[in-house]
Structures are given as structure tokens and as C-alpha cells.
Design a protein that fits this description.
Elements (H helix, E strand, L loop, with lengths): L1 H6 L7 H7 L16 H6 L3 E3 L37 E3 L8
Antiparallel strand pairs: 1-2
GO molecular function: DNA binding; DNA-directed RNA polymerase activity; ribonucleoside binding
Protein name: DNA-directed RNA polymerase
EC number: 2.7.7.6
Length: 97
């Protein structure tokens, strides 16, 4: 776990088992936190990315906010451009335990 968080890559011993569960993605699993200001720093810990597999898909169904996600994901806080709808943020009242 320490190796994965510090490098963003799966350890060689876990690549075969976890890579299949992560749709073949074995790199880019962690992102260093930007310390531009406190609000940006805090917002990065509420971010949820669907994975690199979905960025190549040409369908828009993965980018839609489904009705069962309302109240859990913020419908406004998503970037413009390629990651639109793939990089979401948790809504304000959501707490992860």
C-alpha cells in the first residue's frame, strides 16, 4: 500500500490480481496533492476519478450523473474538457467512514 500511494503504480506482486479489477490500469493510481491554497488542497481529497479506462470510451453514458448518485456527487464540480464527468467530487454533506 505504501508503494502504491508513494509511486502511483501497483507493486509487481499485485499487478496480476489487481490490474484485472482496475480494468487493466496499473499506473496513475495516486496523485500528489497541490498546495496552491487550502481550499484546492482540501478539494483534492474529495475527488473521485473513474479511471483511465473510461477516458478512451467514445460514449457519453459514463460521463452522466445517474439519479442514484445525486446527493453523493456534486453535479457542478467537474472540470471542462476531456475529464468532464469522469473526475467528480463528493458533495459537501458526504462523509466517508
Amino acid at each position: 500500500m505504501v508503494y502504491m500511494v508513494s509511486t502511483g503504480n501497483l507493486p509487481p506482486s499485485c499487478k496480476s490480481t489487481l490490474s484485472a479489477q482496475l480494468s487493466g490500469q496499473s499506473t496513475g493510481l495516486s496523485v500528489p496533492a497541490d498546495n496552491v491554497n487550502f481550499l484546492r488542497f482540501a478539494a483534492q481529497f474529495r475527488a473521485v476519478h473513474r479511471g483511465a479506462f473510461f477516458t478512451e470510451m467514445r460514449t457519453t453514458s459514463v460521463r452522466r450523473l445517474l439519479p442514484e448518485a445525486w446527493g453523493f456527487f456534486c453535479p457542478v464540480h467537474t472540470p471542462d474538457g476531456a475529464p468532464c464527468g469522469l473526475l467528480n467530487h463528493l458533495a459537501e454533506p458526504v462523509e466517508v467512514n
